[in-house]
Amino acid sequence: MPYPILDVVDELKSALKNYSTVVLQAPPGAGKSTILPLQLIGEPWLNKKKIIMLEPRRLATRSVAHRMASLCHEDVGETIGYRIRFDNMVGERTQIEVVTEGILTRQIQQDNTLEGVGMIIFDEFHERSLHADLALALTRQLQQVLRNDLRILIMSATLDGKKISDTLGGNIPVIVSEGRSFPVTIHYNNRDADLPVSGRVARAVKSALREQSGDILTFLPGAGEINKVKVLLEAEVDEVVITPLYGDLSFKNQEEAILPHPQGKRKVVLATSIAETSLTIEGVTTVIDSGLSRIPRFDPRSGLTRLETVSVTADAADQRAGRAGRLGPGVCYRLWSQGSQQFLIPHRQPEILEADLAPLLLELASAGINNVTELDWLTVPPNGAVKQASTLLHQLGAFEGNKITERGKAMVRLPTHPRLAHMLIAARHEEQLLSLAIDCAAILEERDPLPKESGADITLRIESLRKFRQNQVTVGARFTLERIERLAKNWRKIFNIKADHNKVDHFKVGALIAEAYPDRIAQQVEKNSDRYKLAGGRVMKLSSYDPLSGEEFLAVAHLDGGNNEGKIFLAAPLDKDDLYHLSQEVEIIQWDDESNRIVATLEKKIGPLTLERKPLRGILPEKRIEVLCSMIAQKGLDVIGWNEEHQLWQARVMSLRNWRPEESWPDVSDEHLLSTIDVWLAPYLTDVNKQTDFQQLNLSSIVSSLLPWSLQSRLDVLAPLRIQVPSDSWIKVKYFMDGSIPVVEVRLQEVFGLLETLRVNEGRTPVLMHLLSPGFRPVQVTKDLKSFWTNTYAEVRKELRSRYPKHHWPEDPWTAQAVRGVKRKH
User: Fold this and answer.
1) How confident is the model over 27-44, as pLDDT tens digits?
2) Handedness of CA 121, 126, 132, 135 (dihedral sign)
3) Which of 95, 439, 519, 637 is the most core-located residue (most Cβ within 10 A)?
4) How far is CA 720 from the centre of its chain?
């Protein structure tokens, strides 16, 4: 059957002749990954330079290269080659290199002009991996600055080609291949929603085997679910070959899933999202979609990346279903309801929005780009993730200021995450230590070979690996150990060292993990506790009864962010002596609430963790005063002995500030005094060390000095503490911070003969008079005494005469004599 992509080859060649960047939109199975590159090899604009094609996965990289080589009737490594981490098949005659996306950025670092490359193809760009976005940004910069002859072809199965073109500038042609696929009948099935995903999928597979012919491709979120389904099916299904397909499998096992069975047996392929694109799995007529996918998500607040199981996006679901229509009419069973289909997210989120950006920042810095905004991104990296990544790279010594260091340049040359690169570099001065670091790195990059109940100690994994290497009886998943050893062997080849079989020193393991994860050095919260505080500030927890829970310090490698306290999965014990080189000496001068005094210590710290503490002598006065001011600002003025006298002074000054805005009465509110405590109070704190020392302060004098001399003398005149009444008593005046009308409380008999309301502030402000009975009970509240005498007094007199018969209640209060106590009636 001819490939649909051939229908648009001439149009595509013409576009590439006239434009430096072209977008090709073509569905899976059109031949864009295998047929198209071969059609472009001889184009004149290539000028005999090679084509590099990027693939998002290692499996697709190998498979596409092998498929193109077979079409050329050659072996891989001749006209067609590939490069992946730790493996490449490229020869002198290679014209097309199929590479994983991260390889291209390393090639640009080594040759920033890519002189021998005429074209770069981004295959399956709709997956929007972090490496693909980075590679596109770098190659577009290269194209615009140094290589205007370099062609870029962006190929996508489901992404909107016009949207890509518009985002990249608009003047980019979009070629569309309609493809050629057969109709796929969709069945929705949510009947077993209460079962685990493995049980639901196993039931659906058994039904499909009865109802349909041909091979079955099943999509599951991860290897764990795949293995569970495999066990269930092998126990109940005969004469059908069950083949897993996921990234951690060997290439041989992956090929068994992709190629037809040699004896023609019917196959059930249990795959992750790796089978959505690029790969052609022959013989598939039926697809079973669990509707789930597992993706890495990074939280800038915690600095943690974790795999999260999410619902598949609508475009991915369509691609999965399309796998059933490659050879003829097919069937897809979706294990969700038809009603919920409409709520699927249309497209997957670009990885750059939720990924750990430390590798990206290090790659950019190595290319001389110290600011992410220098590049023209399809999706701009989030600021929070960029800051988090920059902080980590500074901790690892890869950055100094905003530039890459020699350590950083060495790290970027190693094909691994900056954390592990830093660990390997830290160990390279000693062969035995480097061999241990390699074993650590290999284990951390692969799945845990031991069951969950084995505890969190990484040392156990290294011991298991070393026993496996020597063909000794070992605990652990043999397949996983094979993968770990294969990776370790690749690392030993790079560093040219031999494997080490010696007994493992768990403190050395901890020291190495700390080099990779300085932000995850952890200290026991309290003795015999399973809770640990990380150098980054979060509190994490070991599983109950984990043997590591007795250790004071841990280096944590794998953990779960969690919503509250996270969980530690892999860690190693730390000797405190191995941490001092990572610590900083910090003077801690603070107020101690228990002893109510300043306490000063000299501490060696890693973030919030304390390795050592000793008393600090000879505190600088300015530092002590700073601590005191901070404490007072936090606790309030009461701590320095602020009492009713000072509060009254405040109210008087603040009243005048409100009443006389034309004058410079200062703000002496609590808020202002606390915010400026380092100005008005600090000079008097030189001899204060403890709570009782505040009693020696003359606060009245200190606060008075806040007023200019000219206002100090006017305060008592304008806002007197007491005011005289006709009985010759001096009555206290109550003032308010907001400048409300002041209040005096005075017995009625003491103001007989007073014709007008009392006033302050040079007569501008009336006083609210609370008139009291002889028993000091409120009788009347007024700020118009004349009106009270005229209109209300007679009624009040009538009531008070009966209640207080021994007191004189004159009919005429205007002329009566004011008295303090009892005045007998005549």
Assistant:
1) 777 788 888 999 999 889
2) positive
3) 439
4) 60
The CATH classification number of 184-352 equals 3.40.50.300
- What token pair was written down for 315? 């475009």
**Residue 149 φ then ψ, to 5°:** -90, -10
Token digits of residue 412: 């970027």
Residue type, 600: A
How many beta carbons lie within 10 A of that of residue 784, not counting itself?
13
Is residue 120 within 8 Å of residue 134, measured between CB atoms? no
Helix (H) / strand (E) element for 605: namely strand 597-606
- Residue 567 makes CB contacts below 8 A (sequence gap 6+) with 540, 541, 542, 543, 559, 560
Spatial distance between the Cα atoms of 348 and 294, rounded to a whole number of angstroms:
12
Asked if residue 53 lies in contact with residue 118, where contact means CB atoms within 8 angstroms, the answer is: no
Long-range contacts of 369-372 (CB under 8 A, 24+ apart): 370/402, 370/403, 370/404, 371/402
**Contact of 5 with 121, CB cutoff 8 Å:** no
167: part of which helix (H) or strand (E)?
A: helix 161-167
Q: 389 forms bridges with which residues in the sheet?
A: none
Whole-number CA gyration radius for the chain: 41
Pairing of strands 403-404, 304-311: unpaired
Strands 87-89 and 80-84: antiparallel
CA atoms within 13 A on the CB side of 203: 15
The reported pLDDT for the residue numbered 823 is: 62
Average pLDDT of span 350-375: 88
- Where residue 29 falls (left for φ over 0; alpha for ψ -120 to 50; beta otherwise) is left
The whole-angstrom separation of Cα 308 and Cα 470 is 36
Please give the structure tokens belonging to residue 309: 């199981």
584-592 and 597-606 strand pairing? antiparallel
How far is C-alpha 797 from the chain's CA centre? 76
Which residues touch 442 (CB under 8 Å, ≥6 apart)? 465, 484, 485, 487, 488, 491
The residues facing 522 across adjacent strands are: 534, 554
Q: Which two tokens stand for residue 373?
A: 């905004």
* CA angle (44, 50, 51) in 5-degree steps: 95
DSSP-derived secondary structure for 345-373:
-SSPPPGGGTS--HHHHHHHHHTT---GG
Q: Residue 791 carries which DSSP code?
A: I
Q: Helix, strand, or coil here: 676?
A: coil
> Tens of pLDDT along 451-475?
888 899 999 999 999 999 988 866 6
Confidence band for 299, pLDDT divided at 50, 70 and 90: low
| Integer Cα distance of 683 and 706 in angstroms | 13
DSSP 132: H
Rounded to two decimals, the pTM is: 0.72
CATH superfamily of the 4-176 domain: P-loop containing nucleotide triphosphate hydrolases (3.40.50.300)
CA distances from 671 to 89, 552, 651, 668, 704 (A): 72, 44, 13, 8, 18
| pLDDT above 60 for 778 | yes
Quickly tell me which residue has 């602020």 as its tokens.
Answer: 642
For CATH 3.40.50.300, the residue range(s) in the chain are: 4-176, 184-352
Q: What does the alpha-carbon distance between residue 798 and residue 113 come to, in Å, rounded to a whole number? A: 107
DSSP assignment of 462-496 = HHHHHHHHTT----S-HHHHHHHHHHHHHHHHHHT
In this predicted structure, what is the pLDDT of residue 235? Answer: 86
Q: Partners of 404 in the beta sheet?
A: 399
Q: What average pLDDT does the chain have?
A: 88
C-alpha of 494 from chain center: 33
CA distance 68 to 1: 17
Q: How confident is the model at residue 367 (pLDDT cuts 50, 70, 90)?
A: confident
Distance CA 217, CA 92 (A): 38
Q: What's 218's DSSP letter? A: E
Q: How far apart are CA 229 and CA 452, in angstroms?
A: 20
